[in-house]
Design a protein that fits this description.
This protein is an all-alpha fold. Helices cover 49% and strands 0% of the residues. It is elongated and about 80 Å long.
């Protein structure tokens, strides 16, 4: 096989419906191409089916009253969930700072005067031991963890699917929910990152030299920790009441801890970044689970009785785990 042929094959594989890598979480259109006869397009072919023989295919229309909820792909559906979330005015008030950390909690409208100064003596004294811990991680654990660090750099949802022994094709609603939580986690983490503006560990201690590119956004809270723990909470939720609940809930949470810690081993996050991600994930999942659609969100059609977009997706995912 030529090099070009191999590249073509890889391109097709990257668009496989089972892919959950970066950019292909639930979208599969990138690699689809259907060649057609130039002189006889499919739309001009007469029907050979039993219901409308010889009728032009282009005249056979389906009665589709609306774009169904289940037809939304996970990556785009996540934006509907975000619409519900941001309509709840308390989503920016989740207290995420670990108790011993000497920085202020975020407020609804961040006052510039209260932004943390990371060179203040109290904060610097808190950060110094964390840097030493990360240096020890790099020395003792980075070589063994490097494979996972690289693999989890862009996405970690595939790890949770593998833990569940599922595939996007066999558990589409579960996959969709994980993609939603991944996007929501990224969104809320970026909001708090923009408030706290914490320098990355390697900006304080260049000798940490992370083995991958340093992300172009602030450190606190850890986005990977937020996203991974949101997915772990979602898994525990949808398997609740099944014989698998205790084992899968524990395993998913342990996996989330491992993914978050790998970012520390890589020198990309402080341990307090990870802890903040855990706190944020718990707070946000609670909002997603109980929040009612606001009057603004109700402009988007939803089934009756009213539910948030996330509640709909969560219920569909839980139905896939009905036992037996």
């Amino acid at each position: 096989m030529s090099a070009n042929s191999a590249n073509s094959a890889n391109s097709a594989n990257s668009a496989n419906a089972g892919s959950v890598g970066a950019g292909n979480a639930t979208s599969i259109s990138g690699g689809w191409f259907f060649p057609d006869r130039i002189d006889l397009p499919f739309v001009t072919v007469p029907s050979t089916g039993p219901n409308n023989p010889n009728a032009p295919i282009a005249s056979l229309l389906v009665n589709v009253p609306n774009f169904r909820v289940r037809d939304w792909s996970g990556d785009f559906y996540a934006w509907l969930v975000l619409h519900d979330l941001v309509s709840a005015q308390d989503w920016r008030n989740v207290p995420i700072v670990p108790g011993a950390m000497p920085v202020p909690q975020v407020q609804l409208v961040p006052p510039t005067a209260n932004l943390p100064n990371w060179t203040d003596a109290a904060i610097a004294d808190f950060t110094a031991p964390e840097i030493l811990t990360l240096a020890q991680y790099a020395q003792d654990e980075r070589p063994d963890a490097l494979g996972e660090i690289l693999s989890q750099s862009d996405e970690c949802a595939s790890y949770f699917l593998n833990l569940l022994t599922t595939r996007p094709t066999s558990y589409p609603a579960t996959t969709k929910m994980l993609m939603i939580l991944n996007t929501v986690g990224l969104f809320v983490a970026m909001y708090y990152k923009s408030y706290y503006q914490r320098p990355r560990p390697s900006q304080i201690c260049p000798a940490l030299l992370p083995p991958i590119a340093i992300p172009g956004h602030a450190s606190f809270p850890s986005g990977h920790s937020t996203q991974a723990h949101l997915m772990a909470l979602g898994i525990a939720d949808i398997v609740n009441g099944t014989p698998l609940q205790d084992t899968l809930a524990d395993d998913a949470w342990t996996l989330a801890n491992r993914i978050a810690r790998n970012r520390e081993i890589a020198g990309l996050h402080y341990p307090s970044d990870t802890q903040a991600g855990v706190i944020l994930a718990n707070g946000v999942y609670a909002l997603l689970s109980v929040a009612s659609p606001s009057s603004t969100a109700n402009l988007l059609a939803k089934p009756t009785p009213p539910q948030t977009w996330f509640q709909i997706a969560r219920n569909e995912a839980a139905a896939e785990w009905t036992w037996p």
